[in-house]
Amino acid sequence: MMKFQVSKKIDAPDEDIWRIVRDVNGIPKYWHGTRNLTIIGKEGDGIRARVQFAFPGPFNKGEVIINMNEQEREVLMNYVKGPFTGVHKISVRGGEVISYWDVKYKFPFSLIESWNENHFKQGTVHALERIERELMEGRK
User: Fold this and answer.
1) Would you say which domain of life the source belongs to (predicted)?
2) CA 1 to CA 131: how far, in whole Å?
3) What are the structural domain ranges in the chain?
4) CB-based contacts of 104, cutoff 8 Å, min separation 6
5) Which CATH class for the 2-138 domain?
6) Which of 37, 65, 110, 128 is geometrically suited to a Cys-Cys bond with 78, CB 3.0 to 4.6 A?
């Protein structure tokens, strides 16, 4: 089981940050652990998508249900199939982006859980930096 949170202050209005965070099609641009994301339909109030992760091999595909809470400025991604299951929540408030992970790895990924956690944390830091860079470059 992996649980952690990473946050980053960004000097931009929340609505500008939210515009990037809420863009489902932009996920692979910022979150490089996701190579491809294809929307396959609606799921309740959200959408269901196929995910191809950035690592090679037969276990690099999954499915995720994505829900948006516009009022709270939160994206909730519930990974339901693939090498891990659980949630990734991204929130925007007060000029800060907060990324919270709570996932469980399946075998064989569970054997290297501590390595995976470090890798996910680094990837999250880099994703938040890419979001910030996009916003700062847009101001030029």
Assistant:
1) Archaea
2) 27
3) 2-138
4) 1, 2, 84, 85, 86, 110
5) alpha beta
6) 65
Cβ(126)–Cβ(119) below 8 Å: no
Q: How far apart are CA 130 and CA 29, in angstroms?
A: 8
- Lookup: tokens for 66: 């994505």
Coil, helix or strand at residue 108: coil
Q: What is the pTM of this model?
A: 0.91
Phi, psi for residue 139 in degrees, rounded to 5: -85, -15
Per-residue pLDDT at 108: 60
58: left (phi over 0), alpha (psi -120 to 50) or beta: alpha
User: Which residues, other chains included, contact 133 with Cβ-Cβ below 8 Å and sequence gap of 6+?
Assistant: none
